[in-house]
Known about the structure:
Elements: E1 4-15, E2 18-29, E3 33-37, H1 44-51, E4 59-64, E5 67-68, H2 74-79, E6 82-85, H3 97-106, H4 123-135, H5 151-164, E7 169-173, H6 184-198, E8 201-206, E9 218-223, E10 226-231, H7 233-238, H8 240-247
Parallel strand pairs: 3-8, 3-9, 6-7, 7-8
Antiparallel strand pairs: 1-2, 1-4, 4-5, 9-10
Helix pairs in contact: 3-4, 3-5, 4-5, 5-6
Amino acid sequence: MSEVVLDVKNLKKSFGAINVLDDVSFSLKKGEFKTIIGPNGAGKTTIYNIISGVFRPTAGHVSLYGTDITNMPSHKITKMGLSRAFQITNLFPYLTTHENIRIAAQSKDKGNFNIFKNYKKNTKAMDAANEVVGLVKLSGKENMLAKDLTHTEKRKLELGILLAMGGDILLLDEPTAGVAAEEVPELIRIVEDIKETKKKSVLLIEHKIGIILNISDTIAVLHGGTLIADETPEEIKQNEKVQKAYFGGGAKNE
Length: 254
């Protein structure tokens, strides 16, 4: 796990007089599961927006597989193998579960959106969708419209769409947001299965440290737009700076 697939260097981002990020640097290695944590307003989503090409940084740069992508548009970054899921579900509500995933699978291959071709003849995309439906635990929900799924099932579908897109690097923005506490472990297991069975590198945004200590290889901690630690879970638990800044010197879980 030595190859660096994503490298973030000296990122700064300001909106007018407000500094959101200040000299943030970290890397993601091939096959690594890294989580970025921090309180609301710490700059987590801003980092994702820069990495995925939504924002341009005020300073610093981002490299993907050694190529500078700092000023590259989002669709080109996606084509390079980086797939992002948003905190708010982004689905086709009037398409079925299977159709949402199948269209994502088709998007990988140039020329697959031919209006004169029967989609059922695209066996590659159909087979990929069938596999992904099972992996994200939506078997039996294939023919349900996305709008009729429960909130947790929509989060699963979003993970399925991300997986079907075929990127080797997955950016997940609080995939458990709004999910009932008793359903969180299943979602986390799905993320772990995707990482292990599909050999993905995962960068996860979260603010509840309690749910990521057992699944992360490394944890990067943001506080006030500054990276104050980037260590293993065990090191994070013992880091006094993290305890003071993130937990206020009190409880160790949020």
